[in-house]
Design a protein that fits this description.
Layout (H helix, E strand, L loop, with lengths): L2 H7 L3 E6 L5 H15 L5 E4 L9 H14 L3 E6 L5 H13 L4 E5 L7 H4 L7 H10 L3 E6 L10 H14 L1 E6 L5 H13 L6 E5 L5 H11 L5 H10 L3 H21 L4 E5 L5 H12 L4
Parallel strand pairs: 1-2, 1-8, 2-3, 3-4, 4-5, 5-6, 6-7, 7-8
Helix pairs in contact: 6-7, 10-11, 11-12
Length: 288
């Protein structure tokens, strides 16, 4: 099923994101996690694209296997970096053969130094989105509620988002955020810029204080002071930290859902317990 059609016909949509493991044992563990989360009947799952190009075929293999063996709709993340037009055409054809209808078109992280400035066949995510659209895929794109690191201001950010939509992106999935005001401000800016596609909230459950600090620093996320204080008060107690993370995410999602978010995309980090607890609690509350 085309994911854009899901957002048009169902609200809210719940989805989970995974990354390709580096070992066969990791793949087995991932499918055990997927089997647990499948009981929650997610609307779709997505699999990220590794920076390491030789490992990227695993993304394609995983989305095909997820759809074939688990019967869950799957979306492949694709990046522009290190792909020629001919190579990307081969990727698209392989996805089509495996019955995959959905891709998330991303620029991806650029290599450092001269290699990062080299001419590429797909300079921007919008170029990849247009290519995928012409192959008939339902195409998603990324949104950045706290401003993309390469955008100097919101005018540049919105111009980039609008270019992606004009190129064929049918829904946007946000980078993780921890303050809902950032999400709602982004949606307001997008609507003012003429962007009308669904803007899906990306949520990452907190399971480790050092881990979430590293992630926030990497992505430029603001961590709310009350959340940090509560995590610091139980740091060293893994179960208590997870409890804090679940409570925070439930409250965050509850507000988003009550205010009409079209969907929530959980960044699972290939683990099931926190995401399972959050979605179960939201359903108990009657908001999911």
């Amino acid at each position: 099923m085309r994911i854009a059609d899901l957002y048009a016909s169902k609200k809210p949509v719940f989805s989970f994101e995974f990354f390709p493991p580096k070992t066969e044992k990791g793949v087995d563990s991932l499918f055990a996690t997927l089997a647990e989360l499948a009981r929650l009947e997610p609307d779709f799952v997505s699999v990220t694209c590794p920076l390491d190009k030789p490992r990227r075929p695993l993304t394609l293999a995983l989305v095909a296997r997820i759809k074939r063996e688990l019967g869950i709709e799957a979306m492949a993340h694709l990046v522009t970096v290190d792909y020629s037009v001919d190579e990307m055409r081969g990727v698209m054809q392989a996805l089509k053969i495996d019955g995959i209808e959905n891709v998330l078109a991303l620029r991806g992280d650029l290599p450092e130094g001269p290699a990062g400035r080299a001419r590429r066949d797909f300079p921007y995510a919008s170029d990849l989105a247009r290519f995928a659209r012409d192959f008939g895929f339902s195409v998603g794109g990324a949104a950045h509620p706290e401003l993309h690191p390469d955008s100097k201001d919101w005018q540049v950010e919105m111009a980039g988002a609008r270019a992606k939509v004009e190129a064929g992106v049918e829904f946007l999935v946000t980078q993780l955020f921890f303050d809902n005001t950032d999400y709602f401000a982004y949606v307001e800016r997008a609507r003012a810029a003429g962007i009308q596609v669904p803007i899906v909230a990306g949520i990452m459950p907190v399971t480790s204080l050092p881990g979430i600090r590293r992630m926030a620093a990497m992505n430029g996320n603001r961590l709310p002071a009350p959340l940090v204080a509560e995590l610091e008060s139980v740091d060293g107690d893994a179960e208590a930290v997870a409890d804090v993370g679940v409570r925070f995410a439930v409250a965050q999602c509850e507000e988003l859902l009550e205010r009409g978010v079209p969907g929530i995309h959980f960044y699972t980090l290939n683990r099931s317990p926190a995401t399972r607890r959050i979605l179960t609690r939201l359903r108990e509350k009657g908001v999911a």
